[in-house]
Amino acid sequence: MWISKFIFTYSFAYGWKKFHERGDFTKLKDRIAIVTGGGSGIGQSIAMELAKEGAKLALVGRTLGKLETTVEKLKEINGEAIAVSADVSDSAQVQKMVQEVINHYGRIDILCNTAGIFDGPNDYLETEEEVFESVMNINVTGTFLVSKYVLPHMLKQGKGVVINTSSVAGIRSCYASPAYTASKHAVIGLTGDMAVKYATKGIRSVAVCPGFIETEMISDLLGDKIDENNPVIAPIPMKRLGRVEEIGKVFAFLASDDASYISGVPIIVDGALTV
């Protein structure tokens, strides 16, 4: 009996080892992914989920310290990543960042445009012009610029995936400012435009539209009372906030070949809020 158990245990362990050596456990093995806004929140979770699937990462943001914290977290799960400081709304900085990623990794397979800002649930009268401009610069211009300078490398390779971060605010108005709502509608527009223009070039473009997710930004909005009676949570049929890892897993799926026929559309992840 003990001999048969030993043989089974050894065979299973050997098979599992070979399984990992083949890379069958990871759908994104050795693919190179840029994640903007990768220093915290949803961006950090996206980076973690991509790394779990075998991707190598370049984390981009304005605060190098936050990016380096994510790099350390990735090392704990044997992930590989570099941190690159850049303001995505600055063309020169974006071009320099993209070149740095190319110099380090040699290619770019996946772009996750996650960097964004939220100016609160302001109305038209409360929204200052400079705030409106700032939100549009990061959320829209940033998405455009990073895509613009990554795209030539993807076209040269003949394949690539661009995943933009919109919001349920890009689908309908909900607890957001004019600036944020406009910016997230614009992101969906950019996504569809890229998908159509480069569909025959091996490029896919998708927009993820998260609902209310448990992040520092949402915590500031909701305050201490985070339960189903909260006026933000009450309309959500699932009666809870989404989790950052739930968004990260959606990005990882969309970046993989399993999603090879998904392009140009918003993918809503909101607990049935917008139904």
Specify the helix fraction band.
Answer: 40-55%
CATH class label: Alpha Beta
Strand content: 5-15%
Number of strands: 7
| CATH homologous superfamily heading | NAD(P)-binding Rossmann-like Domain
Biggest sheet: strands, sense, closure? 7 strands, parallel
Can you describe this structure in just a few lines?
With about 280 residues, this protein is of the alpha/beta class. The protein has helices spanning about 1-20, 40-50, 65-75, 90-105, 130-155, 180-195, 215-220, 245-255, and strands at about 30-35, 55-60, 80-85, 110-115, 160-165, 205-210, 265-270.
Can you offer a commentary on this structure?
About 4% of the residues have low confidence. The longest helix is centred in the middle third of the chain and has 29 residues. The protein is globular and about 50 Å long. Helix content is 47%, strand content 14%. Helix 2 packs across helix 8. It is of the alpha/beta class and 275 residues long. The chain is built from eight helices and seven strands. A seven-stranded parallel beta sheet has the order 3-2-1-4-5-6-7, with helices on both faces. It has one domain: Rossmann fold (3-Layer(aba) Sandwich), CATH 3.40.50.720.
Question: What is this structure's SSE topology?
Answer:
Layout: H1 2-22, E1 32-36, H2 41-52, E2 56-61, H3 64-76, E3 80-85, H4 91-105, E4 110-113, H5 129-157, E5 160-165, H6 178-197, E6 203-210, H7 216-222, H8 244-255, E7 266-269
Parallel strand pairs: 1-2, 1-4, 2-3, 4-5, 5-6, 6-7
Helix pairs in contact: 2-8, 4-5, 5-6
